[in-house]
Give the backbone structure.
Amino acid sequence: MTVVQFPPRSAGPVRPRHPESTILAALDVGSTKVCCLIAEVIKLKSRSAGESTQRALKVLGFGHHGARGMRAGAVVDIEEAERSIRLAVDGAERMAGITISDVHVSVAGGRPQCVAYSGSTKVSASEVGGADMQRAIENAMLSLDPGRRALLHASPVQYHLDDARGVKNPVGMFGETLKVDINAVFAETGAMRNLGLAIARCHLNPVSYVIAPYAGARAVLVRDEMMLGAAYIEMGGATTSVAVYHENRLCYADVVPLGGQHITNDIARGLSTPIAHAERLKTLHGSAIPSQSDEREHVQVPLVGERGVDTIQSVPRSMLTGIIRPRLEETFELIRDRLETSPFAAMAGRRLVLSGGASQLPGVRELAGQILDRQVRLGTPMPLKGMPEAAMKPAFAVAAGLLDHALNPDQQVLLPERRNNRTARREGYISRVGQWIIESF
């Protein structure tokens, strides 16, 4: 994932660089909670001679705090958001015993949008070289116009060499026409600037911005799912996001403005109870699938604004289920519609992985399978050395995925500069001559 690029920059792939520091920090700024993870990069001994040294993560600090000043993943009160970030980071720093300055940040607000672009070029020699790949990427990026939105992520999904599709690395292969498909993710510039300002006021430097479902998928999906294709759904507090992975690459990502907090609000309104008690009812007695005993079982619901024992009403559990299920159905139907309109949705096959705090509600897995018509499993973050048991839950999948992204970043593609045609033609001619000299001599 790339850092948000507000000014235009030159096009072309950027090789991922390993972090120079041995300390990495992830900051998940969500709608209902802020989570910070601090980890150390450790080197693993190679088992056999000749193998490159592998690297892994050891978690040193973990902190989280309820999110204030956030709505649907976007900052609405910068002072409250700053305070929430400070408290979460302070908890992680105290546990780790160190102070951090650089953080990798998740993005769930700003209405992220995923768009696919394609570009092609004629192969200059008998076999494909690095210059051919760069020209194809540049041609694809020329049609990319973010307008008033910020570019979060742009990466090559797959290459096509003549009639061969799904080529991973075409360098050294023979062909005449090389085509590349690029996936770009945009978000509203204002939302990104406000998020960056809240983080900067905490004396932190955002090294990169990563869309939430991408980070969550990196922490939850197993290797075969990322290779064969799978859809990942991150069910957060105020947003539900989806990502499609295929051949270890992000193909599609999107966010719908519905989450677990909307279910809590529906319960509070439907049963006339305080929000805190509505969250408790959802957690202890809520379910997405009705059962035969729902009519016989009753739950105690205190009325909002009332005091005393006589103000507690007893309602059947079926009433609670009747409030929860329609909201979940609406959420999964929106996700289904987004996937059906995506050109990369077919790459996910029939595999679906659920994660996030709202996915822990009983019956969510079965309901998602019915509406989306896929094989569903509940995902938890991959275990990391030193990770507290409290953080090994679906609600913290995004934070764990941010650390994995920081350790092994993807290939990045930057926006091209907007120059006049005469300058572009002149520089293009000179660059081609220089490239010919380099390749020939």
Observations:
- DSSP finds eleven helices and 20 strands in the chain.
